[in-house]
Amino acid sequence: MQIGYKLFAEAYSPQELVRQAVRAEAAGFDFVEISDHYHPWLENHGHSGFAWSILAAIAATTDRIGLVTGVTCPFIRYHPAIIAQAAATTALLSDGRFTLGVGSGERLNEHVVGRGWPAVAQRQAMLRESLEIIRLLWLGGYRSYQGEHLALEDARVFDLPDTPPGIAIAAGGPGSARLAAELGDALFTTEPRADLVRAYTEAGGGGARYAEIPLAWAPDDATALASAHEKFRFGLTGWKVQSELPNPVNFEAATAFISPGHMQDTFGYGPGAAGHLAVAQRFVDAGYDHLALINAGPDPDGFFDFYTAELAAPLRHMRSD
């Protein structure tokens, strides 16, 4: 079992995220995962630094810990040629510790460049073409590509690692889970869904299975739930909402009737380990083996201490019932 720490890039400054990554390495985490956003989810988050600059700084200030994007949309706001270059450079700067997590994106981040927001079927087709372009560029040499949605003209990534980064593909349904098996090296999800793992493995996927585990540590339950509500209530809207709303103000409106009490069914919360471990167990039982812990509590350093003392050992020995 591999245990990671989610760098909540919408809630903390770039400098603080680098500090947390260094602390995560000292606490014994196997990897850190960072979201790649242009906007935060909610106005009160107040941050959304450029993920690739933060990754470079983390690579320079850590020695062992893995780095993962969770996740990058490699089209619309970016072109896949840019992501191929960025991922290759990050892999070199981190001495091979980088995994490229990709997905079909959210309107929240992609609409900003004024190219519209395609329907989901088109986004999935664009993701497939993006992966084909990235893989092509990582072969070396000058490459061209003409797809239905994306094109590449006589491009070359000059600085390539000896071994290309692994690619983890985000899945919200069986179709994208099968795409992860076909064109990726790993599966990435945010829900404890065994059907996605099953679709991935039945399509031939044999790589890592990443999932984000929602936790909120605090010295008491009420503080933990209040912080989870403040930071992460957008997560309760579901993917069909999360992928479609354009700005934080829209998420503020969509979450207006979500209360701290609504967070109880989704999050491990409070000062005791049992509830946190029970939430993680749901994901392990569904078949996930790379657990990225989200701390939606108010105190990152308190969470690191809690993890070291009470979560690390049982999580590493956790197995499916």
From TrEMBL:
Pfam families recorded for this chain? Bac_luciferase (PF00296)
Name the InterPro entries for this protein. Answer: F420-G6PD/mer, F420_G6P_DH-rel, Luciferase-like_dom, Luciferase-like_sf
> What are the record keywords, sorted?
Oxidoreductase
Q: Which domain of life is it from?
A: Bacteria
User: What is the recorded name of this protein?
Assistant: TIGR03557 family F420-dependent LLM class oxidoreductase
**NCBIfam families named in the record:** F420_G6P_family (TIGR03557)
Q: Which GO terms describe its molecular function?
A: oxidoreductase activity
Alphabetical list of PANTHER family matching this protein: 5,10-METHYLENETETRAHYDROMETHANOPTERIN REDUCTASE, PTHR43244
